[in-house]
Specification:
about 15% strand; elongated; five-stranded mixed sheet; alpha+beta; Cyt_B5_heme-BS; metal-binding; 5 helices; heme
């Protein structure tokens, strides 16, 4: 009787830990992942529109004819309020200055909301 009970218990544990997760993973459909930059980059903004976003609580900048909403990053910016010097304006020169590490060039795309109308 004990052998049957142990065998049954092992069978249930096997099903819980091996069989059921495999069944669930096969039924899950792969999800398409798109970045915010890809979704928002289709929009374009005039310089006048960007200029309206010139505050700590609403901060957009222009870098190489792209528009970035960096509001959520203002408080985290290692250079303090330097990011606000060009809020609502072109920040290309400051962005490509010697003070920035190469990782900043990778992370900026997360903040892209569109193109600058030329």
């Amino acid at each position: 009787m004990d052998v049957i009970l142990v065998t049954l218990l092992l069978g249930v544990l096997l099903a819980v830990f091996i069989v059921i997760p495999r069944l669930r993973s096969k039924s899950d459909k792969p999800k398409k992942v798109t970045s915010n930059a890809q979704n928002k980059a289709a929009k374009s903004y005039s310089k006048a529109e960007v200029a309206l976003h010139n505050k700590r609580t609403d901060c957009w900048i222009i870098i190489k004819d792209k528009v970035f909403d960096v509001t959520s990053y203002v408080e985290e910016h290692p250079g303090g309020d330097a990011i606000l010097a060009h809020a609502g304006d072109d920040s290309t020169e400051g962005f490509y200055g010697p003070q920035h590490a190469t990782r900043v060039f990778e992370m900026i795309d997360d903040f892209c909301i569109g193109d600058l109308e030329i």
